[in-house]
Q: What sequence folds into this?
């Protein structure tokens, strides 16, 4: 029987037909990313981390960038194999994707404002009982959930992307814009927003950032988590952070 299997494999190769991978194996992964600027520091760092992590698993990776809500929809629909950067609670908000158990980095959700007197010193609870007009980015269900717990309906709204959120601050159509600092800070250094008077009003929450994979890649998720842990413990992720800063 073994000899027959060897002969059959040789026949396939001789015909130029590659044998199929086992059901739990994958050679290439397409990951969705909601990070808007491919040149941003956060994007570069995550790209470096997961390119190397998948390389150690003999898997190549392609990243497709989408607005946050679209990234979620594409992953849940199975049009991409997963997402690069979501919070822990995201796993409980859908049933299609599974969380890779190790987080390579921690991100900061920050409230931004142009009001020089506005200070938020107690995270999300700082918003309770206020009348601030608050924007957040569509596709962040965790942020939306946090806001719904402390503000009445109608006091907060979603915007398509961080650029629109910052522009609404500039023209006075909102009081606060909440998003990941790793996304907003590079934008505040751009020509459009450098002198706009936008500043941090307060840190809302610091969250580990996890990759998520489609459930069909469950075994790969376990292997990927082990590689991420090894990279973090060895200092390799920190080295990649320094590399990302230089790019």
A:
């Amino acid at each position: 029987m073994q000899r027959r299997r060897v002969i059959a494999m040789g026949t396939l190769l001789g015909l130029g037909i590659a044998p199929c991978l086992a059901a739990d194996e994958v050679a290439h992964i397409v990951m969705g990313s909601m990070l808007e600027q491919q040149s941003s520091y956060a994007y570069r760092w995550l790209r470096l981390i997961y390119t190397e992590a998948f390389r150690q698993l003999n898997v190549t990776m392609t990243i497709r960038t989408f607005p946050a809500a679209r990234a979620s929809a594409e992953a849940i629909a199975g049009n991409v194999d997963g997402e690069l950067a979501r919070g822990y609670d995201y796993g409980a908000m859908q049933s299609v994707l599974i969380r890779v158990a190790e987080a390579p980095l921690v991100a900061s959700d920050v409230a931004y404002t142009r009001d020089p007197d506005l200070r938020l010193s107690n995270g999300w609870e700082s918003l309770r009982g206020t009348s601030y007009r608050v924007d957040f980015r569509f596709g962040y269900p965790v942020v939306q959930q946090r806001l719904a717990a402390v503000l009445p309906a109608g006091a907060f709204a979603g915007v398509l992307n961080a650029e629109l959120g910052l522009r609404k601050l500039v023209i006075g159509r909102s009081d606060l814009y909440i998003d990941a600092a790793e996304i907003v800070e590079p934008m505040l250094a751009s020509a459009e927003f450098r002198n706009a008077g936008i500043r941090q009003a307060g840190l809302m929450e610091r969250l580990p950032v996890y990759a998520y994979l489609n459930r069909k890649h469950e075994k790969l998720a376990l292997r990927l988590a082990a590689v991420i842990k090894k990279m973090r413990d060895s200092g390799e992720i920190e080295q990649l952070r320094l590399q990302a800063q230089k790019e």
